[in-house]
Design a protein that fits this description.
Shape: elongated
Strand content: 15-25%
Number of domains: 6
CATH class of the largest domain: Alpha Beta
CATH topology of the largest domain: Rossmann fold
Largest sheet: 5 strands, antiparallel
Distance between the termini: 98 Å
Number of strands: 38
Number of helices: 33
């Protein structure tokens, strides 16, 4: 315009390439699908402030990335649609840069383009520019030479092309555009023009237009490079939003006009080692390969090239919540004649229900090939990919795309198309660098995608080769920390092409050497070539994400702790990966795993797989690791743990909770501090295993997924000394328990006779968490510290008074955790003695459970809310009722402790007390009652004396075994309580006492001649005590029988006799200090009918009147005292009836037998009082259920005695 030349620009396009749209990631097109052509987008704008006249005259035929080889075929149609008189041509770089052709081919393409344009307008004029250089790209030195050749050919070619009708002129752009291999001040990215470069290009063309075509009054002047008018205004992007999304984390912002792209800084979980810079073409960014729970901090700036940047925005954060599918399983790669075929099994699990396709990524990774990664998308297996470069070595990985985006890649075996099965590697040479390290070399094969290096200890009988290295880039491998010396090891190599692998070649033994470990100067493997030494454009596999995945579900871990945790878990991930690949490096594998397990030919691979699983967990594959720092948990506050792991295998989620000791215990150190000094001062394995990364690896093994979905590890042994003893089959776990804090621990190695903690089987090293931690510590730290981590000498055993001779004199153990506490859950079974009927507040249902039963008192003593308590008691239960309680037991897997009272109802104690002592039925003469008494006693004795299959002893044994079977855990212990003697049979004062229901007392009035009052003679008291003793003998025998049959002493007899014999029975009055019945004597631990309970507040229980209140309310609500039919009530009771139903049936029969007797009189009086609304009448209270049935049962202080006896037993067993 400034030259006054009227110009009409023509062509099919008007604008520039618009900014990319902020869309979510889209899956690539399916392999072999033809590309669908779409109109060229040209709705992008021009620079701000441009002349308005220009905006109405912007047609053109210029397209980003267009080559002359393409334009030559399109120009004719363009000319026909938009006739032109003058064509300005700036083509050629893309032809040579993107391998369309060399310099000569590019000259030919320009010639064809000119000819095709002339076919539409024979008089058209041309101005053809030389091709500028660009800044150097390593490996593309050819581009410099090709550009020079082209520019040298162009003048002579133009001379041939030009005609008088259609002249062709040269534009010397190469010498007027300030861009060269050494630098490009005119370009924003080493080639494409910045604002100053646009002036230089325009100026170069105007020189030709002015000088040759005589247009205008002179060439365009180029402003100074630092002219302020050339500065592009790039403000910080506005409205930055960073949020959780199905891709993980997404950031959006308002577009900045003039930005060609956007620079983005991303920090993950605040870690300086998890920082990255990336870019986006649009005003949207989506995280790639993120892990649920990662926190991303994102900041954005606008960019218009390498040196034209705006300011960054403030940082905003969001937590990743990806909903992406995992990679497929069982990937198999087969090299074919012209490509590769990849098969797989579809993944399962979260977000695999919306899979769109699978993208097979393949990459000719050779350093000097400088190839892009490429992909081929398929809907399902198999993926058949053809037309690959024969003989090229391709890295292969598979990615799953679902509706939300692509998940993590799974890197499979390398493959070489057209190569077939490689030859067995030959020429294997093992060179000893020093006494513990070797270099292994072999002859390579062009058919091999890679090599596997194998080793075995030739001094171990029956040892087999195991995989120690995976090599794809060279034919050399170094191995370190080969204790006790390299000469103990043989090595072999196999080759693979995809999943087609050769056998291993001949074994070669490392030669002996006198060079001390770490002092060797022997041969090393050559340094790896830099990726694409000429300028790599693709991503090396080592750069694919290996960050540890961790999320923080709450704010209990502060930001500083979170940063440290992420770093420690990163080290744990590296430890797992290193140990997986080198499980048998050094002496750690043979030191900490027992010999019998190591003799299994599959054991090495199984152990290595544990470390692989831990690595997968920490990378977020099939499992989510979360971390909290809740120092208020019971494990942290009462059990003094350092950390504890909660594994939810069903949901594939694990939570590690770190207690304050994880940070404050001075024996525990950061891994970084250990690594900072270990090369100058090699640590012992005791110190190295106290690094936080090793502790976290210990915790990871407490999951089923780490152990291949088998039983997770337990903490059989802690510390170097005990772990070595475990592997050597000389570990007595009771030695370790002596050192452990807390009031109880789970028994893992119980003695088969006593049930107490004892010697552990050496094979349990395979199930021991610290074992894996020690092996991983030794292998990884030896690699990181360039020296073998030392194993200290074992301490001697110490034999002193009160200490077992098998225990070491010292121990290095730190008790990080216990996978399960003493009582994961507690189950309480029982009859009316177990139910504590009458104590505290007793329920009004048929089971009549007292709030002060000994199960509840024991649970209160545990004082641990994390322990689940399950109460399976019912007052009327016999063994038949117990079977139903066992069947409905809901948490047997987690229970460590159970209590049981059973047998009293089976032998008919209620009938014996009714007929032998209280005798309420007044129609019967004393002799009749005595007959009923002896009949009941005989029935009980016969049942207890029966040693056959229908006898009580065998049935009790089967019940105990049924509970053990339901538990299925060798750490579960069942405590079976005895019954107790009711009387002191040696005193004489009670000879004048009767507990008769109606007329009892001390020296009651004579009942001659009927003799219905039963006196507590020494003979009767001895007789009844003997029945109790007999029952206790049967129970104790059944406990012994159960343990013998089970093979482990997991059932324990708790004898309460001595607890009650110490002055707490009836008739404890040798000198007649008082007379029975003495209700006010709290030292009597039994109820009689109508007796109140005693307060045991100091024991943590309560005594209230709420039971009687509730029972009265029930009577009031019905308006009467229900009385069953005397003729049918017994038959209607069924098995295990409500004791009150039994009592009222007896009342009904008594009234029926003696309508004018005391029971009938009292019942009629109580009924009349109820009818008149006098509910407080004394006669009414006689029919409260608990008053009727609690006689001969322990009061609350008796329940405390039961609890205390069980606590003593638990301590003897070692559970407390």
């Amino acid at each position: 315009m400034q030259n006054g030349v009227s110009v009409q620009f023509v062509g099919p396009y008007k604008g520039t390439v618009p900014a990319a749209k902020p869309n979510q990631p889209q899956p690539p097109p399916l392999y072999g699908t033809p590309l669908v052509s779409s109109p060229y987008p040209d709705n992008g704008g021009y620079a701000k402030g441009i002349d308005g006249a220009f905006l109405s005259n912007t047609n053109h035929f210029a397209i980003w990335g267009r080559a002359a080889a393409v334009s030559k075929g399109l120009v004719k149609d363009a000319m026909q649609q938009s006739p032109a008189d003058l064509m300005l041509i700036m083509l050629g770089f893309n032809d040579m840069g993107w391998f369309y052709s060399d310099a000569y081919g590019t000259i030919d393409s320009i010639a064809t383009l000119i000819a095709n344009a002339r076919s539409v307008n024979p008089s058209i004029k041309f101005a053809v520019a030389t091709v500028p250089q660009r800044t150097s790209i390593r490996g593309r030195e050819d581009l410099v030479e090709k550009t020079n050749i082209y520019n040298n050919l162009l003048p002579s070619s133009i001379a041939k092309w030009t005609t008088s009708q259609s002249p062709v002129y040269i534009v010397d752009l190469a010498n007027n555009y300030d861009c060269r291999p050494s630098g490009c001040e005119a370009g924003y990215d080493g080639l494409h023009p910045n604002a100053w470069g646009e002036f230089e290009i325009a100026s170069a063309f105007t020189k030709t237009l002015f000088n040759d075509l005589k247009l205008g009054s002179g060439p365009l002047a180029v402003p100074d490079r630092n002219d302020p008018s050339l500065v592009r205004d790039l403000p910080a992007p506005a409205n930055l939003q960073v949020f959780s999304s199905p891709q993980g984390v997404t950031a959006t912002w308002d577009p900045v006009y003039g930005a060609r792209s956007y620079d983005i800084t991303v920090t993950i979980n605040g870690s300086p080692n998890a920082w990255s810079a990336t870019m986006s073409q649009s005003n949207r960014w989506d995280s790639q390969w993120s892990i649920d729970g990662w926190e991303y901090a994102v900041s954005v700036r606008a960019s218009a090239g390498d040196a034209i940047k705006g300011p960054y925005t403030d940082t905003k954060t969001a937590v990743a919540k990806p909903q992406l599918a995992p990679p497929p399983d069982n990937i198999n790669v087969n090299a074919t004649a012209g490509g590769i075929t990849v098969t797989w099994n579809p993944p399962t699990g979260a977000y695999s229900d919306s899979i769109v396709e699978y993208n097979v990524i393949y990459w000719d990774w050779k350093a000097d090939h400088c190839q892009y990664t490429r992909g081929a998308a398929f809907k399902s297996s198999p993926a058949v990919i053809t037309n690959l470069t024969l003989g090229a070595n391709y890295l292969v990985a598979v990615v799953t795309w679902n509706k939300n985006g692509q998940g993590f890649p799974y890197i499979a075996n390398n493959a070489v198309p057209g190569a077939g099965t490689p030859a067995v590697p030959g020429g294997v040479v093992v060179q000893s660098q020093d006494q513990t390290s070797v270099r292994i070399t072999w002859s390579g094969s062009a058919s091999a995608g890679g090599y596997h290096v194998w080793a075995r200890n030739i001094k171990e009988a029956g040892s087999k080769l195991h995989l120690i290295g995976n090599v794809t880039e060279e034919t050399c491998n170094e191995q370190y920390v080969l204790f006790p010396g390299v000469w103990n090891y043989a090595f072999a190599v196999s080759a693979f092409n995809g999943n087609d692998e050769t056998i291993t070649g001949p074994e070669m033994v490392a030669p002996s050497t006198d060079v001390q470990a770490g002092k060797g100067t022997g041969p090393k493997c050559p340094a790896k070539e830099p990726w694409c030494p000429g300028g790599a454009l693709s991503i090396p596999p080592g750069d694919w994400p290996r960050l540890a995945a961790v999320s923080f579900p709450d704010n209990t871990c502060n930001s500083e702790n979170q940063s440290s945790i992420v770093q420690e878990l990163q080290y744990t991930l590296e430890m797992a990966a290193e140990t997986q690949a080198n499980t048998q490096r050094g002496e750690y594998f043979t030191t900490f795993f027992d010999a019998e397990s190591r003799a299994n030919p599959d054991f090495h691979s199984n152990a290595a797989n544990v470390y692989k699983n831990i690595g997968d967990m920490l990378k977020g594959i099939r499992y989510k690791v979360t971390v909290t720092c809740d120092i208020t948990t019971t494990e942290c506050t009462k059990k003094k743990f350092i950390a504890h792991m909660n594994d939810d295998n069903a949901k594939k989620v694990g939570r590690v909770n770190l207690c304050d000791r994880f940070w404050t215990d001075k024996r525990i150190v950061s891994t970084e501090s250990m690594l900072s000094t270990c090369k100058t001062q090699t640590p012992s394995i005791v110190d190295a295993q106290r690094s936080r990364s090793a502790i976290l690896l210990h915790e990871m093994t407490h999951t089923m997924i780490a152990m291949d979905y088998n039983k997770k590890t337990y903490d059989y042994a802690y510390g170097y000394t005990f772990c070595r003893q475990l592997a050597e089959n000389r570990f007595d776990r009771s030695c370790m328990l002596q050192k452990m804090d807390g009031k109880g621990h789970k028994f893992l190695c119980p003695d088969k006779t006593t049930g107490a903690e004892s010697m552990c089987d050496a094979k349990l090293s395979v199930r021991n968490a610290d074992t894996y931690s020690f092996v991983g510590t030794g292998v990884w730290f030896s690699s990181k510290c360039d020296a073998a981590i030392t194993l200290p000498l074992m301490p001697p055993n110490k034999s002193t008074r009160g200490r077992r001779a098998t225990c070491p004199a010292t121990s290095d153990s730190i008790f990080f955790d216990e996978e399960s506490p003493i009582v994961g859950s507690y189950v309480h079974f029982g009859d009316s003695y177990g139910a504590g009927m009458g104590t505290g507040t007793t329920t009004t249902d048929k089971c009549r459970v007292g709030s002060n039963n000994f199960g509840k008192l024991l649970y209160a003593w545990m004082d641990d809310a994390s322990i689940h308590y399950e109460e399976k008691v019912c007052s009327g239960d016999t063994l038949e009722g117990l079977a139903g309680q066992i069947s409905s037991w809901s948490n047997p897997d987690s229970a460590s402790l159970g209590t049981l009272s059973i047998g009293g109802n089976d032998v008919g104690f209620s009938d014996i007390a009714y007929n032998c002592v209280i005798t309420p039925n007044t129609v019967h003469w004393g002799s009749t009652n005595r007959g009923y008494c002896t009949d009941a006693e005989k029935k009980a004795l016969d049942y207890m004396s029966d040693t056959g299959t229908s006898g009580l002893r065998l049935r009790l044994k089967e019940a105990y075994l049924s509970i053990l079977k339901k538990s299925g855990q060798d750490f579960f212990h069942l405590y079976v309580t005895s019954y107790v003697n009711f009387f002191n049979a040696a005193t004489t004062d009670c000879d004048d006492t009767s507990f008769h229901y109606h007329w009892g007392g001390y020296k009651p009035s004579s009942d001659w001649p009927m003799g219905r009052i039963v006196y507590l003679s020494t003979d009767l008291r001895s007789e009844l005590n003997a029945l109790v003793d007999k029952l206790n003998t049967v129970i104790a025998g059944a406990v012994s029988d159960a343990n013998v049959e089970h093979g482990l002493a997991q059932v324990h007899f708790v004898d309460l006799t001595k607890s009650f014999d110490n002055g707490h029975r009836w008739c404890e009055n040798p000198k007649g200090e008082f007379h029975e019945p003495r209700q006010s004597r709290d030292d009597t631990w039994f109820f009689l009918s109508g007796w109140g309970d005693v307060s045991i507040d100091a024991a943590g229980a309560s005594t209230t009147n709420s039971t009687e209140d509730a029972e009265l309310a029930s009577i009031v609500s019905t308006g009467k005292i229900p009385l069953p039919d005397a003729k049918t009530c017994y038959a209607a009771l069924g098995t295990d009836p409500d004791p009150y139903a039994v009592a009222m049936c007896r009342v009904s029969i008594t009234i029926s037998d003696d309508p004018s007797g005391p029971e009938a009189v009292r019942y009629r009086s109580a009924s009349a009082s109820i009818a008149s609304g006098d509910f407080e009448a004394q006669e009414v209270s006689w029919y409260y259920p608990t008053r009727q049935i609690k006689t001969f049962h322990p009061r609350s202080n008796g329940m405390v005695a039961y609890r205390d006896a069980i606590i003593t037993a638990i301590k003897e067993v070692g559970q407390a």
